[in-house]
C-alpha cells in the first residue's frame, strides 16, 4: 500500500489515542495520576502529574497496529519499537516508585545493545559500541531536555514529522507511517502539555522518545532513506543543548548526573521568557533544522555542507546570546536573549 494511503490513518489513530489516554492521566482519580512535586531544581511551582508519556506511548502503539495492518514493517523497525516499549515500562515503574540510576542505565544499555545486535545497523564491534553509546545518550538527553512546558512534545512533533516526510520520499512507507504516528501522538499529548501544562511527559515518555529518535534514525540510514547526518541535524536543538551543557558541567568539575537548571532552555525560562516564550522560540529552531535537513536531502554534497554549517552557526549564535544574557541576568541587569 502506498505512502499516501497509510499516513492519514496512522496519524489520526495515534493522535486520538494519545489525546484520550493523556486526558485520562490528567484526572485525579486515575491510577496513572502520579504527581511531580516541585523542588529547588524544578521550573514548575505546583504538583503536576507526570505520566503524559503513557498517552504518547499509547498513541505510538495504535500507530504500530495500523502500520502492521496496512504496511509491512521490517525487523529493524519492530525491534526499535519493541525497545521503546520496554523503556516505557521501565520509565513508568521509575515514575511510580523510583528506581536506582544504575538499574535504569543498565536497562538502557541492554535495550540499546539488543537493538544494535538484532537490527543489523552496525558493521563491526567499534561501530556497534559507538551506536550503543549514542542510543543511550539520546534517551538520556531527551529526558534532560524534558523540563519545560511543551518542549519535549514539540521536538517530537517537528523531529518525527521530518522523519516521516523524508521516509515517505525515500520509499519507506512503513517507516514513514510509524514516524508520522509518533509525531501525531506527541501532538495529542502536547494539547495538555503546552503552557500552562496540565501534565508532564515523565520518564515513561521522554527516555523512549529519545531512544526512538536515535533508533529510527539508524533504521532510516541503513534502509537508504537518509544519510547519517540527517537525524543528527533534525534533533540538533536537543542534542546540542544537552551535550554542550554536559561538557561544560564536566569541565567545571560538577557532578553531571545530578539535577540542575543550567541547560540553555532552563536559563531562558529563568530570565523571564517563561515556558511559553521559550517553547515558541525553540519551535522556530526546531522548524529551521527540520526544513533544512529535508531540503538537504535534495541537493549535492557541497550544498549539504553549507546547510549543516548554517544550522550549526544558528545554534552558536543562539547559544552566545543566551550566555551573554545569562551573565547580565546573574549580574542583576536583565537582558532577554
TrEMBL record:
The answer to keyword ATP-binding applying to this record is: no
Could you tell me which Pfam families the record lists for this protein? Answer: Glycos_transf_4 (PF00953)
User: What's an example GO cellular component term for this entry?
Assistant: plasma membrane
- Spell out the subcellular localization from the entry: Cell membrane
Keywords of this entry: Cell membrane, Magnesium, Membrane, Metal-binding, Transferase, Transmembrane, Transmembrane helix
Record-linked InterPro entries: Glycosyl_transferase_4
Major localization class: membrane
Q: Which GO terms describe its molecular function?
A: metal ion binding; phosphotransferase activity, for other substituted phosphate groups
Q: Which cofactor does it need?
A: Mg(2+)
Recorded coiled-coil stretches: none
Can you tell me where the transmembrane regions are? 6-26, 51-70, 76-93, 105-138, 150-167, 174-195, 228-247, 278-295, 301-320
Q: How does it sit in the membrane?
A: Multi-pass membrane protein
Q: What Gene Ontology biological process does one annotation of this record name?
A: cell wall organization
Binding site residues for Mg(2+)? 143, 203
This protein is called what? Glycosyl transferase
Organism of this sequence? Zoogloea ramigera
Amino acid at each position: 500500500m502506498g505512502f499516501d494511503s497509510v499516513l492519514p490513518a496512522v496519524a489520526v489513530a495515534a493522535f486520538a489515542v494519545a489525546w484520550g489516554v493523556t486526558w485520562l492521566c490528567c484526572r485525579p482519580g486515575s491510577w496513572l495520576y502520579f504527581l511531580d512535586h516541585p523542588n529547588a531544581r524544578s521550573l514548575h511551582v505546583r504538583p503536576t502529574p507526570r505520566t503524559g508519556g503513557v498517552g504518547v506511548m499509547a498513541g505510538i502503539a495504535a500507530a504500530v497496529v495500523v502500520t502492521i495492518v496496512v504496511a509491512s514493517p521490517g525487523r529493524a523497525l519492530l525491534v526499535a519499537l519493541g525497545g521503546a516499549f520496554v523503556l516505557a515500562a521501565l520509565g513508568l515503574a521509575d515514575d511510580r516508585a523510583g528506581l536506582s540510576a544504575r538499574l535504569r542505565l543498565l536497562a538502557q544499555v541492554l535495550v540499546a545493545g539488543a537493538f544494535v545486535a538484532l537490527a543489523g545497523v552496525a558493521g563491526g564491534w567499534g561501530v556497534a559500541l559507538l551506536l550503543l553509546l549514542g542510543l543511550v545518550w539520546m534517551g538520556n538527553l531527551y529526558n534532560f531536555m524534558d523540563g519545560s512546558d511543551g518542549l519535549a512534545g514539540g521536538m517530537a512533533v517537528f523531529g518525527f514529522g521530518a522523519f516521516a516526510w523524508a521516509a515517505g520520499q525515500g520509499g519507506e512507507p512503513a517507516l514513514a507511517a510509524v514516524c508520522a504516528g509518533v509525531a501525531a501522538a506527541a501532538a495529542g499529548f502536547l494539547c495538555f502539555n503546552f503552557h500552562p501544562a496540565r501534565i508532564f511527559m515523565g520518564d515513561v515518555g521522554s527516555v523512549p522518545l529519545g531512544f526512538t529518535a536515535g533508533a529510527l534514525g539508524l533504521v532510516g540510514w541503513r534502509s537508504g532513506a537518509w544519510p547519517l547526518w540527517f537525524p543528527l541535524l533534525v534533533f540538533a536543538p536537543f542534542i546540542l543543548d544537552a551535550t554542550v551543557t554536559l561538557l561544560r558541567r564536566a569541565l567545571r568539575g560538577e557532578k553531571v548526573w545530578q539535577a540542575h537548571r543550567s541547560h540553555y532552555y532552563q536559563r531562558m525560562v529563568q530570565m523571564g521568557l517563561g515556558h511559553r516564550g521559550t517553547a515558541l522560540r525553540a519551535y522556530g529552531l526546531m522548524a529551521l533544522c527540520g526544513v533544512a535537513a529535508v531540503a538537504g536531502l535534495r541537493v549535492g554534497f557541497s550544498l549539504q555542507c553549507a546547510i549543516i554549517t548554517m544550522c550549526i552557526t544558528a545554534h552558536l549564535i543562539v547559544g552566545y546570546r543566551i550566555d551573554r544574557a545569562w551573565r547580565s541576568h546573574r549580574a542583576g541587569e536583565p537582558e532577554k536573549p
